[in-house]
Amino acid sequence: MIAPLLLALATVAPAAPPAVVTVAEPDELRVVAGGRAEARLVVTIEEGFKIQANPASNPFLVPATLELEADARVRLGAPEYPPGKPYRLPGAASDLSIYEGTFVIRVPLHASGVAPEGAASDVVLEGKLRFQACNRERCLRPSSVAVRVPVKIAPAAASRH
Predict the structure, then answer these.
(1) 128: closest CA among 144, 112, 115?
(2) What residues does each domain of the chain span?
(3) What is the pTM of this model?
(4) How confident is the model at residue 4 (pLDDT cuts 50, 70, 90)?
């Protein structure tokens, strides 16, 4: 009798936090080998929720942090976060720096000077946006959402035609 109950409890997964933050996959970036481009990642936070800006107001807070995996064909610059909006919690002595609604993170890219002659090279930069979302009642556990940035690198010779 106890075994079926334990089995049932073991198969119940803990409830995942609600998906309150999304990152729209940008249109494919096109860049010539050796050239530069900028990825623009549009982040949307569900109404009523806020996340800490980057940099966060205090060292113990979890800032929004974009991490993209490196690729030999594309060198990544440091993500450029927008300034946060001031937000004061009831009874707090100072403001927090937060994001809410929709905002854009920019990432400078530099394509390698080497591309297959006569053919474009497709790269998909993958990573995650880490954050902690809060509303007026509670803060969810720190979480992350997947991020994808498609890049097409054209041979440098293609730019001469």
Answers:
(1) 144
(2) 18-160
(3) 0.82
(4) very low
